[in-house]
UniProtKB/TrEMBL annotation:
InterPro entries: YbaB-like_sf (IPR036894)
Protein name stated in the entry: YbaB/EbfC DNA-binding family protein
Gene3D superfamilies assigned to the protein according to its UniProt record, in alphabetical order: Nucleoid-associated protein YbaB-like domain
Amino acid sequence: MPREIDEAWIDEAIERYRRLDVLRAEFDKAVAGHVVSVHSPDDSIEVLVTAAGDITDVHIRGSLQHRTATELAREVQAVVTTAAEAARWAREKLHDEVFGAFRSLGDR
């Protein structure tokens, strides 16, 4: 028995694929352009990170003369870890904003 082809479903699938491609491009652009600022626990280091996880700038406040290398390394590690978490959080929020209303083919 031959299978019926649901041309309307195929047309909708193609249109949804195109829409998804547009949304993916919007998401990629938003992720690259969205910058989050995070600070070390002692507030001496600020890191700017995109939602894509790229560190775009680092600011060190105050003098480094009063710290040991171990103390500075601990602050840098903490702020970089926080930056990675902030980037992940920002990506998730942007994903929800861009793809939130997008429904699957099974939801038609």
